[in-house]
Amino acid sequence: MTDTRWTRIVLAAVLAAGAAAPALPAQRTGYTPEEFARRRAALMAEVKDGAIVLFGDAALPAGTHFRQDNDFFYFTGNEDLGGVLVMLPASRSSCLFLPKRSAREIQYDGPGLLEDPDGGAKAGFNDVLAVGDLDEYLARNTERAGRVFHVRLSPRDSLDDARSETALWDGRRSRSHYNAQLSVDQYRIARLRERYPQVELRDAAPAIDALRAVKTAEEIEIMRRNGRLSAEAVKQAMLAGRPGVFEYEIEAAAMAVVLKGGAKGAAYAPIVGSGPNSCIFHYERNDRRVGEGEVVLMDFGADLDHLAMDITRTWPASGKFSDEQREVYRIVLEVQKACIAAYRPGATPRSVRDETAAAMKAKGIDPRGLQGGFGHGVGLCVHDVPLGGVLKEGMVMAIEPALYYPEKGFGVRIEDTVLITKTGCEVLTKGVPKEIDEIERLLAGRGR
Description:
Elements: H1 3-17, H2 33-47, E1 51-55, H3 70-76, E2 84-88, E3 93-98, H4 103-109, H5 119-123, E4 127-130, H6 134-141, E5 148-151, H7 163-173, H8 184-195, E6 200-203, H9 205-213, H10 217-240, H11 247-260, E7 265-266, E8 271-274, E9 295-300, E10 302-304, E11 307-308, E12 311-316, H12 323-342, H13 349-363, E13 376-377, E14 396-399, E15 402-405, E16 410-413, E17 416-420, E18 425-427, H14 436-444
Parallel strand pairs: 1-5, 3-4, 5-6
Antiparallel strand pairs: 1-2, 2-3, 7-10, 8-9, 9-12, 10-11, 13-14, 14-17, 15-16, 17-18
Helix pairs in contact: 1-11, 10-11, 12-13
């Protein structure tokens, strides 16, 4: 993103923040230390042997808020730099190792958990020690842990990229051997193997993913709040998305809502595609001026309390769909609604496809090749850990059917994030209109 464009977005967001949008509670922290202790206990009960070693991030990003490594945060709730978590399933103990900060570092960044004499107890750890003691601690526990370390051998995921996507980007980066250096995670694995050749390293990611796939009660409440916040943001963007405005002004209207509501920012680079840009899946330049008669496709969600949200809406910039746009929109919407109706514990991709096909046949709708199925998980990552082949209560997922017609200059995508409940599913993002009459009624009230 260019500095000039970022300046325009910030200025537009400041102006949008002054608009009379409905206020939502500004709140961030939604976790308790007991929540993270329960997660650690669940992982140790699953792994049972050895030592579990997880690393936090060690460097601040440039130009944005720090966001801790997903897996490390999931079990610690800790946002300090350079941390390492060691869990010993045999003794059900967990120890957090953090860098000892100098007075200068504390002056710049503030104190961390290690500087709080009661920090370990308050955070639920058996001990909080200096990271310089890590290797001595591991050496003392190597034999009693059975010479097994459970570490993350699979790629990390980030706020926006799944583990598989991280591996894909690494592969693309390595097309040139000049860019093929080890990642920090690969380097850590190599160092552990070098320092502890007698220890077997096993991948902790499958056990971690199984826990992360089913959201806890505290996570569900945060995601409900994020669903309301992100929905309001997209609604305000729809009100701003008229002919003559730039795509980045629509982005700014949404950003103003989520920042005021306590989110750290967007969960991924906002996608605001007008006209032909609505056919580009991950378009994020957002620098085109919206034209008369075009549709605007916006894909957006907030990062609130380390949990993401994912919504897509498509609307007519001029306030009314054309006949052709309306027909395509109705097909996409009916497929999405049929999928949502089929989501319940025990559902499989096949059962959702069959129920969606039956629903389309009963309504006499040609789905133009669209099928039902599972979307992607949503949680700490927008493209969260895999859901597996069967839905379970507590899973959260996004469903996003779409039809694109580049030759006609428009595409339609409709996406909601849903929670699988005991008997079906709850749409977390229902606060933003998606029925055709609701959209046109909302846009009719925005004036000129």
